[in-house]
Design goal:
CATH architecture of one domain: Sandwich
Strand content: over 45%
Helix content: 10-25%
Number of strands: 46
Keywords: Cell outer membrane, Membrane
Number of helices: 9
Pfam families: OstA_2
Distance between the termini: 59 Å
Organism: Pedobacter jejuensis
Protein name: Organic solvent tolerance-like N-terminal domain-containing protein
InterPro entries: LptD, OstA-like_N
């Protein structure tokens, strides 16, 4: 109530000040006919023309009260004052106060706008128009329409105040507000109450802010919520520069995408429309939905994965631009699938694998052709293509080049008999269906060439539209002091990359992974999820695992060139170590649980099985060398080369996984400058540190006019919040 009182008092205050000076005598310039009553000092005029100072007033008929300096006008009323014209059906004009009360089809026109209403009070001195029964203002240049129940228009300053049911329609958006001010010169719109700004595909809610209808620059300072489809953004202060497509959010930022379950938090964020990129610093972290659950106060809660860093960045990109990590599985004879690190040794099939589930390998997986030393491995078929189609196409293309007599597989000879029938069915297959089935570029090109040869001119391989090229996915980049916390896994690394397309966390720059009583390090570590549940872990180059049983000071150690671990129900179940695998393992007496022996072994490949966070079984697969020594004769600090145990770096809660605040983030790099040499100049950065530059973004501070704002002050941005944002350039 007090707020409304201040609003009304400040509104009528300028009118009272101007009204203290008595107006000049109303003059009759001309009239077709004049009659009157001398006793009552009343005159009746037909088609009169009145003048008072710089204003000309005309109408069809009028009644003039000379003693009161007052007249009433009827039909075709027109007031002309410099560049302002006012039209109405009726007029009551007080010459002493220079106040006009117009009713019926009122229309006030000036070079900037047109105001229409049914009842208008206009002060000729202050040039202030007021309506309280609904009105509309249309700007002359942009065609912007403003409607409201109450309106106050200041002609001198081009300011218009609106109250109750305010609606602004612009070419870009529709604004609905409770209290608003609009300046026709600066094109700035100021909001002082609940406001919705509805765009073509987005919506903005605020209770205090400013918006420019020309530049589309905006600032919002109270209870802000921006939504676009499945995405939303909250923040104490939001800024947006429409022409440059750059936005900024300050304090208590929450970015949410319901489509993929992403939630990003922080205290300073930036948005770049050109590539739909969002960057957050200062206490930045992301919560990713997980399929696992934990018990909190006797209730099941989702075990959300928290990812924090000094700098977080998220973006939606085309999936075809990414190099995805394939799913892996355990196959026959403890073979692990396609590992890029092991391609140099084709005789060892020790590459990538699939999850810990104890699935039996299929016949097609177990019956792999054996290869002699020195021979090349045959190319593998993609999983997406059916066996019959692939075999038939291979036989058709390679029949002229391959000698079937050299084949060692009986099944291949049997398929030769079916080639004719399969080849006849090939022309009936459409390119669209093949493009959906085939995803690998090399296989797709081969199939298209074969089909084109079978029926020349019928199909153009490059003209087929592939719907998979339009699939988009979200990526997340994290840099500096990256930390991860989940109930069954924690991590620390310098930089990280994640995409929903393969659900894989790629950790770069001294990564460390903790799971129960185990710690894994390596040059690069991948952590992969399947159906939103922790599935497998891969450590590349210099992989090292340290496992310490509960209530023990001894360290079981495992190292190798490549390490693949599988999880079952959120716990590490099996681990495969390939390439110069070494291990130190302490055995216990089954009854007394006393350590009795130390087993130190070297092998080309070792399989470990875990139970209750401890090593339960070891299987040495190839080239075994080792020694078994009594525990009393071994040194307590006996460790393998590269041993590292860092429990203090392990995040112990979700709070510890939050990125650093601004002051700490800026004070972090205190190293002395290094002189560039010929060696260091060409050496790439191992952790892919982003290059920081400043974009050319205009500084934006909403304009505050000299006119009173009725005691309702907008929440203006502070000086430090108007600084330009860093633009990070990442190398993928």
């Amino acid at each position: 109530m007090q707020k409304i009182f201040v609003f009304l008092f400040l509104l009528i205050c300028p009118v009272l000040l101007f009204g203290q000076k008595k107006g000049s005598i109303i003059k009759i310039v001309s009239s077709d006919r004049i009659t009157g009553n001398t006793k009552l000092k009343v005159s009746y005029l037909i088609n009169p023309v009145f003048q008072q100072d710089n204003a000309i007033l005309t109408c069809d008929s009028a009644v003039l009260y000379t003693e009161r300096n007052y007249f009433e006008a009827y039909k075709n009323v027109h007031i002309q004052q410099l560049t302002t014209d006012i039209y109405s059906d009726e007029l009551q004009y007080d010459g002493n106060k220079k106040h006009a009360h117009l009713t019926g089809n009122v229309r006030m026109v000036d070079p900037k706008s047109t105001l229409t209403t049914n009842v208008l009070d206009y002060n000729m001195v202050a040039k202030i128009g007021t309506y309280t029964n609904g009105g509309k203002i249309v700007t002359q240049d942009q065609g912007i329409t403003l409607t409201s129940k109450n309106g106050y228009y200041f002609n001198n300053t081009s300011d218009a105040y609106f109250r109750y049911n305010v609606v602004v329609v612009t070419p870009q958006s529709t604004i609905k507000s409770d209290t608003m001010r609009y300046n026709l010169d600066s094109k700035w719109t100021y909001f002082y109450g609940p406001t919705n700004i509805k765009g073509k595909d987005d919506n903005m809610y605020t209770e205090n802010g400013a918006y420019n209808t020309t530049t589309e620059d905006a600032y919002f300072g109270k209870k802000n919520l921006y939504t676009q489809g499945t995405k939303s953004l909250r923040g104490d202060s939001l800024y947006y520069y429409g022409k440059t497509g750059y936005g900024k959010a300050v304090r208590n930022i929450v970015f949410t995408d319901k489509k993929d379950g992403t939630k990003m938090f922080g205290d300073l964020g930036f948005y770049y429309k050109i590539d739909q990129r969002t960057l957050v610093i200062k206490n930045a972290y992301i919560d990713l939905i997980s399929g696992d659950s934990i018990m909190v106060k006797d209730k099941k809660r989702p075990d959300t994965l928290r990812l924090g860093a000094d700098t977080l960045q998220t973006q939606v990109v085309l999936q075809k631009t990414l190099k995805l990590i394939p799913k892996i599985s355990v196959k026959a004879d403890n073979q692990v699938g396609e590992d890029e690190e092991e391609t140099e040794k084709p005789e060892r099939n020790t590459e990538v694998a699939e999850s810990a589930g104890n699935k039996k390998p299929t016949n097609s997986q177990s019956k792999e052709p054996k290869v002699k030393r020195g021979e090349k491995l045959p190319p593998k078929k993609p999983d997406d293509v059916s066996d019959k189609l692939t075999d038939s196409l291979k036989l058709k293309v390679d029949s002229a080049k391959i000698n079937l007599a050299k084949s060692k597989t009986d099944t291949l000879l049997k398929n030769v008999k079916k080639t004719d029938s399969l080849v006849k069915a090939i022309p009936k297959v459409k390119t669209d269906s093949l493009s959906k089935i085939v995803t690998k570029k090399g296989v797709k090109d081969t199939i298209n060439k074969v089909i084109a040869n079978l029926k020349p001119g019928l199909i153009k391989p490059d003209s087929a539209f592939n719907p998979t090229d339009t699939i988009t996915t979200r990526i997340i980049k994290a840099h500096h002091n990256v930390k991860i916390f989940k109930s069954n896994i924690q991590a620390k690394t310098d930089s990280l990359f994640y995409t929903n397309a393969d659900s894989t966390l790629r950790c770069f720059g001294n990564p460390i992974i903790w799971s129960q009583g185990s710690q894994v390090v390596g040059d690069t570590i991948y952590v992969q999820f399947k159906k939103n549940k922790l599935n497998n872990l891969q450590a590349f180059r210099n992989a090292f695992l340290v496992n310490t049983p509960a209530d023990s000071l001894r360290f079981n150690q495992i190292k190798g060139r490549y390490m693949t671990g599988f999880f079952f129900e959120g716990k590490l179940k099996t681990l495969y170590v390939d390439g110069n695998a070494e291990s130190i393992y302490y055995t216990q007496d089954d009854s007394t649980k006393v350590y009795k022996e130390m087993n130190q072994t070297v092998s080309s490949r070792i399989k470990f099985t875990f139970k209750d966070n401890d090593i339960d079984d070891i299987v040495y697969i190839n080239s075994i060398e080792g020694a078994l020594n009594p525990e009393v004769k071994t040194e307590k600090d006996n460790v393998l080369k590269g041993f590292s145990w860092k429990p203090k770096d392990r995040p112990k809660s979700r709070k510890e996984a939050i990125g650093a605040s601004g002051s700490k983030a800026k004070a972090r790099p205190k190293t002395a400058p290094v002189k560039a040499t010929s060696k260091t100049a060409t050496k790439p950065l191992a952790n892919k540190t982003p290059v920081v530059i400043k974009p050319t973004v205009p500084k934006f501070i909403p304009k505050t006019d000299s006119l009173p704002n009725f005691g309702i002050k907008p929440i203006l941005p502070k000086k430090y919040t108007t600084k330009t944002a860093p633009k990070l350039l990442f190398k993928q």
